[in-house]
Request: fold
Amino acid sequence: MGEVGVETLDPCIARCVKLGVANYTAAARLLQESLERLGDGASTAAIKMRLIRWRSRAPDHCYGLTCERLARLLAGTRIELREGVSVLTVPKALFQRVEGLVPRLMVEARLFNILQGVSGVTIIVDEEHAAAIRDAVGDTLEELRGQAALILVSPREILDTPGFIAYISTLLAVNNINITQIVSCYTDTIILVSQGDAPRAYRVLLEAVEAARRLSAPEINRSSHEGHPGSPLITRD
Reply:
Protein backbone atom coordinates (compact mmCIF):
# COMPACT_ATOMS: atom_id res chain seq x y z
CA MET A 1 0.00 0.00 0.00
CA GLY A 2 2.91 2.40 -0.61
CA GLU A 3 4.17 4.33 2.40
CA VAL A 4 1.03 3.70 4.47
CA GLY A 5 -0.01 0.07 4.72
CA VAL A 6 -3.54 -1.28 4.79
CA GLU A 7 -2.82 -2.65 8.27
CA THR A 8 -2.18 0.95 9.36
CA LEU A 9 -5.13 2.53 7.56
CA ASP A 10 -7.65 -0.07 8.72
CA PRO A 11 -6.58 -3.23 10.61
CA CYS A 12 -10.08 -4.70 10.21
CA ILE A 13 -9.93 -4.46 6.42
CA ALA A 14 -6.39 -5.86 6.51
CA ARG A 15 -7.54 -8.89 8.51
CA CYS A 16 -10.42 -9.57 6.12
CA VAL A 17 -8.13 -9.29 3.11
CA LYS A 18 -5.60 -11.65 4.68
CA LEU A 19 -8.34 -14.20 5.45
CA GLY A 20 -9.64 -13.98 1.89
CA VAL A 21 -13.14 -12.93 2.95
CA ALA A 22 -13.01 -9.36 1.56
CA ASN A 23 -13.98 -8.21 -1.90
CA TYR A 24 -10.82 -6.57 -3.22
CA THR A 25 -12.64 -3.89 -5.22
CA ALA A 26 -14.90 -2.93 -2.30
CA ALA A 27 -11.91 -2.85 0.08
CA ALA A 28 -9.98 -0.67 -2.37
CA ARG A 29 -12.84 1.81 -2.58
CA LEU A 30 -13.01 2.05 1.21
CA LEU A 31 -9.29 2.83 1.37
CA GLN A 32 -9.16 5.18 -1.60
CA GLU A 33 -10.49 8.30 0.15
CA SER A 34 -7.96 8.02 3.00
CA LEU A 35 -5.13 7.45 0.53
CA GLU A 36 -6.16 10.51 -1.48
CA ARG A 37 -6.02 12.62 1.68
CA LEU A 38 -2.49 11.30 2.22
CA GLY A 39 -1.49 12.46 -1.26
CA ASP A 40 -1.79 9.07 -2.96
CA GLY A 41 -3.99 9.43 -6.04
CA ALA A 42 -4.00 5.76 -7.00
CA SER A 43 -7.05 4.44 -8.82
CA THR A 44 -9.35 1.79 -7.39
CA ALA A 45 -7.81 -0.79 -9.75
CA ALA A 46 -4.27 0.13 -8.63
CA ILE A 47 -5.20 -0.12 -4.93
CA LYS A 48 -6.85 -3.48 -5.63
CA MET A 49 -3.59 -4.80 -7.11
CA ARG A 50 -1.66 -3.53 -4.08
CA LEU A 51 -4.03 -5.43 -1.81
CA ILE A 52 -3.53 -8.63 -3.78
CA ARG A 53 0.25 -8.27 -3.59
CA TRP A 54 0.10 -7.33 0.11
CA ARG A 55 -1.96 -10.41 0.96
CA SER A 56 0.62 -12.72 -0.64
CA ARG A 57 3.46 -11.43 1.54
CA ALA A 58 1.72 -10.31 4.76
CA PRO A 59 2.39 -12.43 7.87
CA ASP A 60 -0.54 -14.50 9.07
CA HIS A 61 -1.09 -13.11 12.57
CA CYS A 62 -3.98 -14.78 14.32
CA TYR A 63 -6.27 -12.86 16.63
CA GLY A 64 -9.90 -13.07 17.68
CA LEU A 65 -11.75 -16.16 18.85
CA THR A 66 -10.87 -17.89 15.56
CA CYS A 67 -7.38 -18.14 17.07
CA GLU A 68 -7.26 -21.17 19.38
CA ARG A 69 -4.50 -19.71 21.56
CA LEU A 70 -6.42 -16.51 22.21
CA ALA A 71 -9.70 -18.36 22.76
CA ARG A 72 -8.06 -20.55 25.41
CA LEU A 73 -6.64 -17.47 27.12
CA LEU A 74 -10.00 -15.73 27.23
CA ALA A 75 -11.67 -18.94 28.43
CA GLY A 76 -9.36 -18.87 31.45
CA THR A 77 -10.08 -15.23 32.23
CA ARG A 78 -12.13 -14.12 35.24
CA ILE A 79 -14.15 -10.90 34.98
CA GLU A 80 -15.18 -8.59 37.80
CA LEU A 81 -17.24 -5.40 37.63
CA ARG A 82 -16.64 -2.68 40.19
CA GLU A 83 -18.86 0.37 40.08
CA GLY A 84 -18.47 3.73 41.79
CA VAL A 85 -14.98 4.65 40.57
CA SER A 86 -13.34 8.05 40.13
CA VAL A 87 -10.32 8.97 38.01
CA LEU A 88 -8.30 11.98 39.15
CA THR A 89 -5.33 13.37 37.24
CA VAL A 90 -3.10 15.68 39.26
CA PRO A 91 -0.02 17.72 38.30
CA LYS A 92 3.22 15.87 39.06
CA ALA A 93 4.34 18.70 41.31
CA LEU A 94 1.32 18.16 43.57
CA PHE A 95 1.49 14.39 43.84
CA GLN A 96 3.64 14.61 46.97
CA ARG A 97 0.53 15.82 48.79
CA VAL A 98 -1.07 12.44 48.14
CA GLU A 99 1.90 10.23 49.03
CA GLY A 100 0.94 10.06 52.70
CA LEU A 101 -2.46 8.61 51.78
CA VAL A 102 -1.08 5.77 49.66
CA PRO A 103 -0.47 3.13 52.40
CA ARG A 104 -3.99 3.56 53.80
CA LEU A 105 -5.69 3.57 50.40
CA MET A 106 -3.89 0.39 49.34
CA VAL A 107 -5.54 -1.36 52.29
CA GLU A 108 -8.94 0.32 52.49
CA ALA A 109 -9.93 1.19 48.93
CA ARG A 110 -11.91 -1.26 46.80
CA LEU A 111 -9.84 -0.13 43.83
CA PHE A 112 -6.63 1.90 43.81
CA ASN A 113 -4.13 2.45 40.99
CA ILE A 114 -1.50 5.11 40.35
CA LEU A 115 -0.25 5.83 36.82
CA GLN A 116 2.50 8.27 35.95
CA GLY A 117 2.21 10.07 32.64
CA VAL A 118 4.19 12.79 30.92
CA SER A 119 2.26 15.75 32.30
CA GLY A 120 0.56 14.33 35.36
CA VAL A 121 -0.24 11.44 37.66
CA THR A 122 -3.55 9.63 37.27
CA ILE A 123 -5.15 8.04 40.32
CA ILE A 124 -7.94 5.49 39.94
CA VAL A 125 -9.84 5.02 43.19
CA ASP A 126 -13.28 4.14 44.48
CA GLU A 127 -15.58 7.11 45.05
CA GLU A 128 -15.58 6.61 48.82
CA HIS A 129 -11.90 7.63 48.96
CA ALA A 130 -11.79 10.12 46.07
CA ALA A 131 -12.65 13.03 48.37
CA ALA A 132 -9.53 12.42 50.48
CA ILE A 133 -7.34 12.73 47.38
CA ARG A 134 -9.27 15.74 46.14
CA ASP A 135 -8.89 17.53 49.48
CA ALA A 136 -5.19 16.69 49.73
CA VAL A 137 -4.33 17.92 46.23
CA GLY A 138 -6.63 20.90 46.04
CA ASP A 139 -6.26 21.21 42.27
CA THR A 140 -6.67 18.52 39.60
CA LEU A 141 -5.99 18.57 35.88
CA GLU A 142 -9.01 16.35 35.20
CA GLU A 143 -11.52 14.32 37.15
CA LEU A 144 -13.87 11.68 35.81
CA ARG A 145 -16.64 10.63 38.16
CA GLY A 146 -19.24 7.93 37.68
CA GLN A 147 -16.84 5.39 36.23
CA ALA A 148 -16.86 1.60 36.44
CA ALA A 149 -13.95 -0.83 36.29
CA LEU A 150 -14.02 -4.10 34.37
CA ILE A 151 -11.21 -6.20 35.80
CA LEU A 152 -10.04 -9.12 33.67
CA VAL A 153 -7.80 -11.55 35.55
CA SER A 154 -6.14 -13.87 33.05
CA PRO A 155 -3.76 -16.83 33.10
CA ARG A 156 -0.04 -16.06 32.92
CA GLU A 157 -0.09 -16.83 29.17
CA ILE A 158 -1.44 -13.31 28.60
CA LEU A 159 2.14 -12.06 28.99
CA ASP A 160 3.24 -13.62 25.69
CA THR A 161 -0.01 -13.92 23.73
CA PRO A 162 -0.44 -11.18 21.09
CA GLY A 163 -3.88 -9.74 20.41
CA PHE A 164 -5.68 -10.01 23.76
CA ILE A 165 -5.99 -6.27 24.41
CA ALA A 166 -6.66 -5.65 20.70
CA TYR A 167 -9.54 -8.14 20.73
CA ILE A 168 -11.12 -6.80 23.94
CA SER A 169 -10.83 -3.13 22.94
CA THR A 170 -12.16 -3.82 19.43
CA LEU A 171 -15.07 -5.78 20.89
CA LEU A 172 -16.05 -2.79 23.03
CA ALA A 173 -15.48 -0.30 20.19
CA VAL A 174 -17.77 -2.09 17.72
CA ASN A 175 -20.43 -2.01 20.43
CA ASN A 176 -19.97 1.78 20.72
CA ILE A 177 -18.52 1.54 24.24
CA ASN A 178 -15.83 4.10 25.01
CA ILE A 179 -12.83 3.14 27.14
CA THR A 180 -11.82 6.04 29.39
CA GLN A 181 -8.76 4.31 30.90
CA ILE A 182 -7.00 1.00 30.43
CA VAL A 183 -4.37 -0.42 32.77
CA SER A 184 -2.31 -3.60 32.60
CA CYS A 185 -0.81 -5.01 35.80
CA TYR A 186 0.88 -8.44 35.48
CA THR A 187 -2.02 -10.71 34.46
CA ASP A 188 -4.75 -8.18 35.26
CA THR A 189 -6.31 -5.90 32.67
CA ILE A 190 -8.38 -3.04 34.11
CA ILE A 191 -10.74 -1.29 31.72
CA LEU A 192 -12.63 1.80 32.80
CA VAL A 193 -15.88 2.82 31.15
CA SER A 194 -18.68 5.17 32.13
CA GLN A 195 -21.08 3.73 34.66
CA GLY A 196 -23.88 4.06 32.12
CA ASP A 197 -22.00 1.81 29.68
CA ALA A 198 -20.88 -0.66 32.36
CA PRO A 199 -23.79 -3.17 32.24
CA ARG A 200 -23.56 -3.41 28.44
CA ALA A 201 -19.75 -3.67 28.50
CA TYR A 202 -19.96 -6.39 31.12
CA ARG A 203 -22.51 -8.31 29.04
CA VAL A 204 -20.40 -8.00 25.87
CA LEU A 205 -17.30 -9.36 27.61
CA LEU A 206 -19.32 -12.08 29.34
CA GLU A 207 -20.63 -13.28 25.98
CA ALA A 208 -17.06 -13.36 24.66
CA VAL A 209 -15.86 -15.43 27.62
CA GLU A 210 -18.75 -17.86 27.26
CA ALA A 211 -18.06 -18.22 23.53
CA ALA A 212 -14.38 -18.82 24.27
CA ARG A 213 -15.31 -21.53 26.77
CA ARG A 214 -17.36 -23.34 24.14
CA LEU A 215 -14.57 -23.04 21.59
CA SER A 216 -11.73 -24.00 23.93
CA ALA A 217 -10.30 -27.43 24.56
CA PRO A 218 -12.38 -29.97 26.55
CA GLU A 219 -9.95 -29.96 29.49
CA ILE A 220 -10.54 -26.25 30.07
CA ASN A 221 -14.28 -26.76 30.13
CA ARG A 222 -13.87 -29.63 32.57
CA SER A 223 -11.68 -27.59 34.88
CA SER A 224 -14.25 -24.78 34.97
CA HIS A 225 -16.84 -27.19 36.39
CA GLU A 226 -14.33 -28.44 38.93
CA GLY A 227 -13.57 -24.93 40.19
CA HIS A 228 -10.01 -24.83 38.84
CA PRO A 229 -8.29 -21.54 39.82
CA GLY A 230 -7.74 -20.66 36.18
CA SER A 231 -11.31 -21.29 35.11
CA PRO A 232 -13.61 -18.49 33.97
CA LEU A 233 -15.53 -16.94 36.83
CA ILE A 234 -17.87 -14.01 36.29
CA THR A 235 -18.48 -11.97 39.42
CA ARG A 236 -19.93 -8.57 40.20
CA ASP A 237 -19.06 -6.46 43.22
